[in-house]
Amino acid sequence: MKTRYKIIESKASPFGGLYILSEFMNQMNFKKMFHDVFGHYRRVRKYQPSENVAVQIVSIVAGGERLYDTQRFANDDVIPDLFSNGNIAEDTTLRDELVHIGGLDTQRQELLFQLNEYHFQQSGLRTMTIDIDGTAIPVDGHQQGAELGYCPSEPGSRCFQSVSAICDETETTLAEQTHFGNTHCSNGIIEFCQILLDRFSPQMNRIDIRLDAGFYSDDLLKLFESYGNVYYTVSVPQHQWLKKKVQNMVYKTYHRSDHQYASFAYSEGLDHQVRYYHVERSKKPTDNQFDLFNTYRYNYRVIITNQGNRQPHSAFYHYNGRGNDEKHLGELKNEYALGKMVSGDFIVTKALFWVSYLTFTLIGMLRKVAFRLEMAKYRLRRLRFILFINIACFVEHARTKTLNIVEPIIGAGRFKFLLQRIWAY
């Protein structure tokens, strides 16, 4: 039996749960912070720059993957009032906004800095772990800056290169850069790290920083060693002298592990600081007949650090925490539209990538501030289902507008507690 249906016009919004995000952004005074950082870079007619950026953030949180998806909110009864001036700008207007923002590299970075500093101050964070990594963003078409380069997910595809620094404790983006696809991720990494550490090193008691072998260089390690409270753990490339050395060392097993470990040290750092090399080896599987022609029985991994108080297995356990960063990058691509919103103008593409990282940062802050227990582990897709997608509408009585929200899946009580934590932030 067919179920009859009828399409009607209604003022109700399916995205009423985004009221949580609007209250959070209002509580931290996001609009003022944005204007203080970017200043008056254009004449304001109808839409404030911060409102246009907020609308793009909302589009990503709601599941949008294209710039024109913001037009979905044009006839919405709730979103324009919560995040804009009661109206939604056309996607061409938003693109013009991104042209301005994409050319302001320093200001984009400064806003991420200030958001994180505000969060660190409110949460009392005094030690942090920074994971720096690069990822290739494959694209279809011939956008400006999309070039053939290192792209392991889709070899031979045109791509962009995105470098980011993510705080492991808060799951927020500290800094990001977007490069042409034929650019190596280590290009400009020393300046990138110096700006980052100059900003946060004076504010922290301790900073741990982790990078893979693609960023390794002696100059980079000396930069880290010039800060008294920065401790690095970096994967080491397969240098020829290192290949011979690791095969002639004495290894030890810890806690009945299948891996074996060894260590050595050289006073080769800045001002003869000691650098500690830790080696991990594991037996290769023997079920491949091609192994009969391979003289090496083990797989080797080498990391270098300036921390001398760690056993090698503990140092590798700490370094393996970089896996969280790889999960965050996958989440950015799959849930925050990183690389799905691109433009023929590279300046606009840089701004679009930045908006994805900015949205990731705001949700990471919201997660730490308001969510507890299992909700603190939920990623954006799950939060969208149980919280952000919820029926709501504005009702006006006695010249006062009230947002009526249908009881969310998490229940009215938990919804109320979320708001109380946000208002106390």
Could you explain how this protein is built, in words?
By secondary structure, the protein is of the alpha+beta class. It has 2 domains: 16-103 and 346-388 and 407-423, no CATH class; 105-335, Transposase Inhibitor Protein From Tn5, Chain A, domain 1. Helix content is 38%, strand content 20%. The strands form 2 sheets. Strands 1, 2, 3, 4, 5, 6, 7, 8, 9 and 10 form a 10-stranded mixed β-sheet that branches. It has a two-stranded antiparallel ribbon with strand order 11-12. A hairpin with a 6-residue loop joins strand 7 and strand 8. Helix 2 (30-38) packs antiparallel against helix 6 (105-123) and helix 6 (105-123) runs parallel beside helix 12. Residues 290-295 have low confidence and may be disordered.
What's the arrangement of secondary structure elements?
Blueprint: H1 19-27, H2 30-38, H3 49-62, H4 79-83, H5 91-102, H6 105-123, E1 127-138, E2 147-148, E3 158-167, E4 172-180, H7 189-200, E5 206-211, H8 218-225, E6 230-235, H9 240-246, E7 252-253, E8 260-266, E9 275-283, E10 298-305, H10 312-319, H11 323-335, H12 346-370, H13 380-388, E11 392-397, E12 400-405, H14 412-423
Parallel strand pairs: 1-5, 5-6
Antiparallel strand pairs: 1-3, 2-3, 3-4, 6-10, 7-8, 8-9, 9-10, 11-12
Helix pairs in contact: 1-14, 2-6, 3-12, 5-12, 6-12, 7-8
